Amino acid sequence: MAHQFLQPKTVHKPTGYSHAARVGDMLYVAGQIALDRSGKLVGKGDIEAQTKQVFTNLQNVLKEAGGTMKHVVKTMTFITHPGHLEPYRKVRGQFLTEPFPCNTLLVVESLASPDYLIEIEAIAALER
C-alpha cells in the first residue's frame, strides 16, 4: 500500500524523521515534544505547559492530514516523573474527550533532551 510522509509547516522542522506517515486511512504521528513552530522549547520545567504544547503539535499534525483529535485511536505517552501523571491528565482532558483513545503510558528516565518532560505519539484513523 502506498504511503505519504508529512512535514507540516505548523510544527517545528524535524531532523532526520517525518512528523507523520499516512497509509490509507491510517495516520502514524511521530512522538511530539514541547517545541513550538520555530523549534523553541515551551515550558522549561513546567509539565502542564509542555503537555499543552505537545497536544497542540499533535492537533496541528492531524489538521494538516485532514483529521482532528477525535480521529485518534491510540497514543503512547512518555513522561519523566510519576508526579507528571495528574498534570498530564488535566491537560489531556482539554484536547481529548471520553471515551479516551487507547494509551500506553511509560515513565522513563530521560527523553532526547533532559529539558523534555513529556513526549506523545499517536495513531489516528482518518476518513476519506
Give the SSE map.
Elements: E1 3-6, E2 20-23, E3 26-32, H1 47-64, E4 72-79, H2 85-95, E5 102-107, E6 118-125
Parallel strand pairs: 4-5
Antiparallel strand pairs: 1-2, 2-3, 3-6, 4-6
Helix pairs in contact: 1-2
Task: Spell out the key features of this protein.
128 residues, alpha+beta, 60s Ribosomal Protein L30, Chain: A, six-stranded mixed sheet, 2 helices, 6 strands
Question: How would you describe this structure to a colleague?
Answer:
Strand 2 and strand 3 form a beta hairpin. The mean pLDDT is 95. The protein has a single domain, classed as RutC-like (60s Ribosomal Protein L30, Chain: A), CATH 3.30.1330.40. The protein contains two helices and six strands. The protein has helices spanning 47-64, 85-95, and strands at 3-6, 20-23, 26-32, 72-79, 102-107, 118-125. With 128 residues, it is α+β, with helices and mostly antiparallel strands.
H and E string: EEEHEHEE
Q: What share of residues is helical? A: 10-25%
Cα shape: globular
Q: Based on the structure given, which CATH architecture is correct?
A: 2-Layer Sandwich
Number of separate domains: 1
Q: Give the CATH superfamily.
A: RutC-like
In the CATH scheme, what's the topology name?
A: 60s Ribosomal Protein L30, Chain: A
Query: Helix- and strand-based class?
Result: alpha+beta
Rounded to the nearest angstrom, the radius of gyration is 14 Å
Q: How many strand elements?
A: 6
| Main sheet makeup | 6 strands, mixed
Cα distance spanning the termini: 15 Å
In the CATH hierarchy, what is the class? Answer: Alpha Beta
- Output the number of helix runs: 2
Strand content: 25-35%
Main-sheet strand order equals: 1-2-3-6-4-5
Task: State the low-pLDDT regions, or none.
Answer: none
The overall pLDDT, averaged over residues, is 95
